[in-house]
Amino acid sequence: MLDLIIRGAEIVDGTGTPAMRADLGVADGRIAAIGRLTEPAQQTVEADGLVLAPGIVDIHTHYDAQLTWDPTASPSTALGVTSVVMGNCGFSIAPCPPDRRDLVARNLSEVEGMSLASLRTGIDWRFERFGEYLDLVQSKGPHLNVAAFVGHSTVRSAVMGEAASERPATADEIAAMRGLVAESLAAGAVGFASSHSENHNGYGGVPMPSRLADEAEIRTLAGTLGDAGRGVYQMTAGPNTSVAFLESLGREIGRPVIFSSVFQNDTFPDRGPGQLRDCAAAADRGVQVYGQTSCQPLTMEFTLANAYPLSSLDVWDDLRGADADRLARSFADPTFRDRFRATLGVPKKGKLFYGNWSRVQVGQAATDANRAAEGRSIADLAAAAGSDPVDVFFDLALSEDLGTLFSAQLINADEDQLEPMLQHPNGVIALSDAGAHLSFLCDAGYGLHLLGHWVRDRKAFSLEEAVRQLTSKPAAIYRIPDRGRIAPGAPADLMLFDPARVAPSPRPRRVADLPGGDSRMVRDPIGMHGVWVNGVQVHDGRDHVHSGAGPGRVLRHFSA
Q1: According to the model, what pLDDT value does residue 206 have?
Q2: Around Cβ 170, how many Cβ atoms within 10 Å?
Q3: C-alpha angle 250-252-258 in degrees, rounded to nearest 5
Q4: CA distance 257 to 112
Q5: What class is the 54-297+413-539 domain?
């Protein structure tokens, strides 16, 4: 007897081949049969023509801390995701000696926009080595499948302590780091991840440790992948990181190189397309280099009490870690505002905000006196008042004790320019950042946005191709065997959805469910009817339906 039959589904198998109407049977967590099935089953689901596809393989998440207190990986499981890769940008939480735990948590709280109190309260630190961390995650009973990078900043912190954000490493320190990376790969890491992004700052505004690494350190640590003959290298690029450097690294180690992020940017319109052209040229020379792209505008909600989108501006250097009184004094100072305008007037790669005030809206006013401003852009408010947008922006925030909630579309807002980037063979659609930036955004529903907006509304992809982009393509690049496709014998990681309705909720909502009661942003699914991981249903489109230890697996074995 089969454990589960899903009858009458429009099956999209993840490979890009045309959909077909069929039944699907599951036994022992794997797909047992596809076709017209007459066998009995413990459970039957009538699909009635809904689309049955592989679950989404989300390759850019930051669930490293959250999974130690929340094995459901909320909200990703609700949004069709059945496998995640975490530890991106080098921000793993293992390996970590006991005396480095608070350092790692403090830096994580800043760079990933998370409550430090929640991290200190919630992280289960019953591990030191990377393999022990993977064992811990499995013991929690994750509700989805989990692969994890070993992170450069974490390894640097483990070896160097506070000095990791202050200076280059010595030869002995690099050798110690290399040993930790090699040990982590042997224990089951999917690869090695790092960052040189100027937006990545730790607690008190210090650079995240990997930003202090020189080229020799990067090549030495990434070289462990070549020695092991497996694993992928992920780099969150800085403004001066070139595809040529990443290609040379990929040739040297003989492994795939994936970098973040390739964005549509009005100020530098050819940067993203040019990076993808360089990736294609590298592929022609036999080196696999891919750029991660996002199918959504990068939209962040923030207040000026914690303005992450502005933190990469030079004028903000002196404000990192400042308290509310100092922030308010600075924002009221005409000299600061002049410096702010001057900074915006000098385009600089690596920024998140370039001064497009038409894409900064008042999301929520903190006082009744300003309710009429909600939903209006700063540019619109400035034009109506006959004032400069910079003054309107800071004056509004100061009038509400920095409590005004702003919403900014930072990049990826021009869809006509973005579309060919999403379709590029050397791009990988990803960048959910799920588990991070909890105070500012929730992009965990990127897959449903692709299936809805880009397939149904813009018709930029066929449904079959969009599913491939979300499933078998990232699984193949990251060498994750079996996942991301529907085929007899494959794990039964599945999502069932209505293609006429599928989407993430239009706006995130705030829930106060972090350890200690702090809040985060989440999104909800629309048009989702079920999510199964290894044959077990974990979500029905409305609620989590699986309690206790989940059916997910920590993935430790990857293809060469």
Answers
A1: 94
A2: 12
A3: 15
A4: 23
A5: alpha beta
